[in-house]
């Protein structure tokens, strides 16, 4: 693996593999968290519009060229980032780089296409609102933070998207789609030096600087809060959420990954075994962390029959507190380390998986160290590290979000 910086501030990570294809993945270090209230949803809306052509390729020209190369592409938007990945046969690497570079620098953002795509976004918001888990996690973000760019939905709202203009989008695009805010990750059968030359040719002339990142002003809610959502569901859902470390607290983030795996990482995990198999209180139980650039949250959610809601919550809290007091057993720790290591290796078999993993961690931390040294890092953690991260989280107040049947 090689990492380079161009003169204009653009970073590139190049990983040569034996795959017969190559993936180019452009990561912009801005997502919905940097939107103003009037812009809520604009980062995601822009992600859609980026595929609607450039001056050079025309409204439908990008898709036609990618299809002609035998390629596939997609994108995603989160709170902290937006990324666009294109996979093609390795012999078409240079052409693919040309296409995605033109899209990143010269998106057309046509007003007529903007108006058409708005209806697609509004439908997506409606679908998200009809999803129990989607609604639950959106409400968690809203309730767990007192002040944060993470508080509002990444998709925006019906009101903000309906009021949005193409001029607003163009302004957002010019502010944040800049070389110093972009990482290009390449994985596949391509020579390092050739890849760097191609990226320099197509991205090296890009100019612009993103605005300074606002100081972290994240504030969590300071009192226990409970929110109810009524939906057409046959089972009830309940989530508890506590403030948790940001991605920059690497040791705690990894310790929390291990704790979450031991507690709910599949059959035989503590919460699953106790709440589902032994007591029959839940149909599903899971816990984990939503890791972000700024401080995030740890969640635990259950799916259960209405009459089991309180018992499931009390038993789950009891088990978390027991874990905070006593930590994992040596066998649990050994098994979880092995499982998480294997999960990482298996998740990086395809070029798209490699660029996604490297891009995610580099965008959030400015380094690929956590990926390159993952096994050593988790092996350094002991049982006290694992139990202490849960104990620290449980010192905070928690938010409860319950989804209950309309009946």
Characterization of this structure:
With 407 residues, this protein is of the alpha+beta class. The protein folds into two domains: 2-203, Metalloenzyme, LuxS/M16 peptidase-like (Cytochrome Bc1 Complex, Chain A, domain 1); 220-405, Cytochrome Bc1 Complex, Chain A, domain 1. Helices cover 46% and strands 20% of the residues. The strands form three sheets. The chain has a six-stranded mixed beta sheet, with helices on both faces. The chain has a five-stranded mixed beta sheet with strand order 9-13-10-12-11, with helices on both faces. Strands 6-8 form a two-stranded antiparallel ribbon. Helix 1 (42-49) crosses helix 7 (166-176) and helix 9 crosses helix 16. The protein is globular, with a radius of gyration of 22 Å. The model has no long low-confidence stretch (mean pLDDT 95).
Radius of gyration: 22 Å
CATH fold field value of the largest domain: Cytochrome Bc1 Complex, Chain A, domain 1
What structural category characterises the helix and strand content? alpha+beta
Number of strands: 13
Please list the strands of the largest sheet in the order they lie side by side: 1-2-7-3-5-4
* Cα-to-Cα separation, first versus last residue: 56 Å
CATH homologous superfamily of the largest domain, by name?
A: Metalloenzyme, LuxS/M16 peptidase-like
Can you give the mean pLDDT?
95
Shape: globular
Tell me the CATH architecture of the largest domain. 2-Layer Sandwich
Helix content: 40-55%
